[in-house]
Automatic annotation (TrEMBL):
Record-given protein name: Family 43 glycosylhydrolase
This protein's record includes keyword Hydrolase: yes
UniProt KW Hydrolase keyword: yes
Source superkingdom: Bacteria
Keywords: Glycosidase, Hydrolase, Signal
SUPFAM superfamilies, per the entry: Arabinanase/levansucrase/invertase (SSF75005)
Residues making up the signal peptide according to the UniProt record: 1-22
Family: Belongs to the glycosyl hydrolase 43 family.
Pfam families (UniProt xref): Glyco_hydro_43
Transmembrane segments: none
């Protein structure tokens, strides 16, 4: 009898512990995959395909140069968002060739969407060329028949070459500007007018921090920091998601937004961003619009908490907002990175529920966070 009780209790507690860990995440702690290794998928995004979530992210290394892309894009799968199986590298760097996707380049914020018509998984990512710092400002494209890859690298481009933004006034198109050498008030005024769009008109627009968004009608959008990180561009992708159409819009010119993450709730588009302070955290920002391309209205810092939380977005920077369906309801999870530039592989993650207060999305600290109530 005693033995039976012991066995029963052991199973009871083991069962309880498993259920608990399968539903809870602990903020900013190392999250271990099913092999007991820390999840290495930074600046990531999540795709739900059938009943599985796929988390794609930057595979970092240790040491000061650990932010360079030496390996590729990692992929993890999960049914419950808390237990993650390592699916290996979905996209691998291409060594010993003339490919632009060389180990040692920069590959950031990969996002994957599924195209129902072509049945292809499409990955876009911020790509910088080896040894060129952040000057190239390209967006890279890779495609696969399977969610976990292998993804085939297709190209890296400066988008929207030779086309004006949809919301660019005709009166400014043929003006000849001189770019002020100092980043002073005059420079900022001209940036707002579009001097950098004009500078990059023939070459293609800069594309740095990015995300993807698929609207209810299946149209996909590529949202990225452009114009020396001064202005966000929202671009419509082609039906197969493999290219840019000629339609794009400037959002918050001169606003210096990066780390964009976008979600749709009750027919409104909510855009979360951060300021531009490198790897250091800064106050989060949020905007709302009736149309995906704006105009976006500033609805302030979404963080509710201590002064420190508000100033640093809980020591994190936005990367993605994940919709999770619960019955007929959709909940949204804010995903942020805690960057560790001195040892990037040690960077941890913050995932927090987004709630609506007075019709405005807000993020409050919740630790542990119960993902699937
Ligand atoms: C902030 C961006 O959001 C990151 O993705 C990365 O590009 C760093 N800047 C580099 O300093």
């Amino acid at each position: 009898m005693k033995q039976f009780n012991k066995v029963f209790l052991t199973f009871f507690f083991l069962g309880f512990a498993t259920t608990l860990s399968a539903q809870m995440i602990e903020q900013g702690k190392p999250w271990l995959d099913t092999d007991g290794v820390m999840v290495n998928a930074h600046g990531g995004g999540i795709l739900k395909y059938n009943d599985t979530y796929y988390w794609y992210g930057e595979f970092k290394r240790s040491g000061k140069r650990g932010n360079m892309a030496m390996d590729g894009v990692s992929c993890y799968s999960s049914k419950d968002l808390a237990t993650w199986k390592n699916e290996g590298l979905a996209l691998k760097m291409i060594a010993n060739t003339n490919s632009l996707l060389q180990p040692g380049c920069i590959l950031e914020r990969p996002k994957v969407i599924y195209n129902k018509k072509t049945k292809k998984f499409v990955m876009w990512f911020h790509h910088e060329l080896k040894g060129k710092g952040y000057d190239a400002a390209l967006t890279g494209l890779a495609v696969s028949d399977h969610p976990e890859g292998p993804f085939k690298y297709l190209k890296s481009i400066r988008p929207n070459k030779g086309v004006w933004p949809q919301n660019f006034p005709d009166s400014l198109k043929n003006l000849s500007f001189t770019i002020p050498t100092d980043r002073n008030a005059e420079w900022h005024k001209k940036v707002i007018e579009g001097i950098l769009v004009q500078r990059d008109f023939n070459k293609g627009q800069m594309a740095r921090d990015m995300t993807l968004f698929v609207d209810d009608d299946g149209t996909a959008y590529h949202i990225h920091s452009s114009e020396d990180n001064q202005t966000l561009h929202i671009s419509k992708l082609t039906d197969d998601y493999l290219d840019f159409t000629d339609e794009y819009w400037r959002v918050k010119p001169g606003g210096s937004n990066e780390a964009p993450a976008l979600f749709k709730y009750q027919n409104k588009y909510y855009l979360f961003t951060s300021g531009t302070t490198g790897w250091a955290p800064n106050p989060g920002r949020s905007f709302v619009a009736d149309k995906i391309y704006g105009p976006y209205k500033n609805i302030g810092n979404p963080v509710r908490g201590s002064q420190e939380d508000i100033k640093t977005t809980f020591h994190s920077q936005s990367t993605y907002i994940l919709p999770v369906n619960k019955g007929t309801e959709t909940k949204f999870i804010f995903m942020g990175d805690r960057w560790m530039p001195d040892n990037p592989i040690d960077g941890c993650y913050i995932w927090l529920p987004i709630t609506f207060e007075n019709n405005i999305p807000v993020i409050r600290w919740e630790d542990p966070f119960r993902l699937m109530p």
